[in-house]
Amino acid sequence: MVFTMGIGVAIYAIDISNILSYDSVPGMLQANCYLIFGFLISVVTFVCQNCRLRVLREISRISSQLTDEDFGRWTLTIQAKDILGFIFLAGQMTRAIMKSGSYILAAFKFLGMYTTLVVFLMDCQYMNLVCVLELCFRKINQHLIALRRKVEIDEPHLLRRVYHENKNPLILHELQVLKKSYQDVSDAVRDLNDAFCLQNVASIVLTFAEITFSLYFYILKVLGVKEINLEKQIWYSYFIMSVGYYAAKIAFTVWTCEITKDQALKTGILVHDVILCTSDDRTKEEMQLFSLQLLHRDNSFTAKGLSLDATLLSAIVGGITTYLLILIQFLLSSKSCRGGADAGQ
User: Fold this and answer.
1) What does the alpha-carbon distance between residue 57 and residue 59 come to, in Å, rounded to a whole number?
2) Structural Rg of the chain based on CA atoms
3) Which of 9, 21, 174, 312 sits in a 20 to 30 Å window from 299, CA-based?
């Protein structure tokens, strides 16, 4: 409630009362975009907390079979990302408040950095859950590799004749377990997409807007054009820090989604390898059913039609380039209009 009121007061101060007026329309648009989408992410986080908790419980149940060795690959990366990111934003917040010339400006900068911190924590939660799902898919693939070796060796697991005739019933049981595990992880991917879809859309749009405006103001600074008051910015080194932070965040998000999707696709390859290696009809039938299950599950990470993969990065780069050219054209047009008006006078 307090955060919502703070966002409302900040928008009023920028757009109506002009207490925090900006030197240009792009500067005002950037501030409004930052506050509105940060507010949207915070509201969605609060409203969808029950759905998010259900996903957390489901992923916790699925990942309970993972060992410490399985998590070893990701533990250091996740902890380093979260701790370093939090320390970085906390340092930016301290510096921004200390360098403020007034209490109003200090409060505005604190609200901006608090919004950034909230968005960062929500994005980290999503990335961490995707990493856990990657480990679950990797575990299934490891079992499939071990299963392929068993099928290639074709060793009967029990010595009784009836089990010799059935061609290793323990393999069939293991296949049933793997099919159930894959179904559970795929359901978790679907629920994760549903629970974080609005948050991811708002975060992507916010990232796109911040990188675009930051690069635009950097170009103006290089050209010697003063279009923004840097005293109102929350970053220590506005252009470098802002672009670097948002670029790194979206890149890491896409990377985690890509490698998790690759692990899910690898499962299909391993299943067909097992089909080619086995000569037992029952085992081959179970593996074909497993393959059919894979065809009906799309383990892509999406957000309201946006695919969180490498194509998103290319689309963002293309969009940033397009809107930078549009902003620069508007700037040149406004200068031409002012020059023509001055000449007419």
Assistant:
1) 6
2) 26
3) 174
Cross-strand bridge partners of residue 306: 303
Instruction: Decide if 31 contacts 14 (C-beta within 8 A).
Output: yes
Of 60, 232, 59, 40, the closest CA to residue 118 belongs to: 40
pTM: 0.84
Count of alpha carbons within 13 Å of 116, Cβ hemisphere only? 27
Burial of residue 43 (CB within 10 Å: 0-12, 13-18, 19+) is middle
Parallel, antiparallel or unpaired: strands 306-307 and 302-303: antiparallel
> Which amino acid is residue 303, in one-letter code?
A
Residue 93 · residue 219 · CB < 8 Å: no
Question: Are 130 and 302 spatial neighbours (Cβ–Cβ below 8 Å)?
Answer: no
Token reading at 270: 């391993």
Distances from the Cα of 286 to the Cαs of 97, 145, 153, 176, 303, in angstroms? 63, 16, 19, 8, 33
Q: Where are the beta strands (DSSP E) in the chain?
A: 302-303, 306-307
What gap in Å lies between CA 143 and CA 178, rounded to an integer? 8
The Cβ of residue 221 has, within 10 Å, a number of other Cβ atoms equal to 15
| Three-state DSSP state, 151 | helix
Q: pLDDT class for 79, splitting at 50, 70, 90?
A: confident
Q: Pull the structure tokens for residue 167.
A: 């061609």
CA 72 to centroid of chain Cα atoms? 22
Residue type present at position 294: L
Question: What does the pLDDT read at residue 129?
Answer: 92
